[in-house]
Amino acid sequence: MKNFIKLVACVVVVEGAGVVGSIFTTPNISSWYDILIKPKLAPPNWLFAPVWTVLFAFMGIALYLVWQKRKVNFSVGSSKIWAWAVVLFFFQLLLNVLWSIIFFGFQNPAIAFLELLALWLAILATMVLFAKISFSAASLLLPYVLWVSFAGYLNYEIWQLNSPISDSVACSKEAKICPDGSVVWQVAPDCHFNECRKES
Question: Considering the chain, what is the average pLDDT of its residues?
Fold first, then answer.
């Protein structure tokens, strides 16, 4: 019974991080995110919540499996590995929440992509240390790192597809023919047409 309570506690703590991230995600996924240009492989919006719920549950179970190992009589070196594994786990969890804040809260795909790279590396490092303690725990993080890899692809594509077009390109698609037959183009910053030459 005590172990079950510990398992539930680990899952609840990790799911709690997901709840914090959803505070920034939920209001924007059906508004700002919905109007973005997205790649063909982008999943429907409704899929994100159940996928992340399952992934956070897996993370919570992985944390529990590693946490249980603290009772084992580790050597000094192994104790350090366990400590670093737990620290890295919570660090990557923090980066996970931070990504939601940057991408959805600040609506900044460019910075979010760079932050996601750090998250991806932190997950890999966590998996490496978890594997030294519990192979099962490391395996439970595999779907997580795969999904974050896919999220990285989506993040990058959304960043590129929605990057502001330079003024020179955006303001040169239309032209106006003046009475004297000359052509004027749109100019920055508000893309108004240049004035036609006055007849002398």
Answer: 87
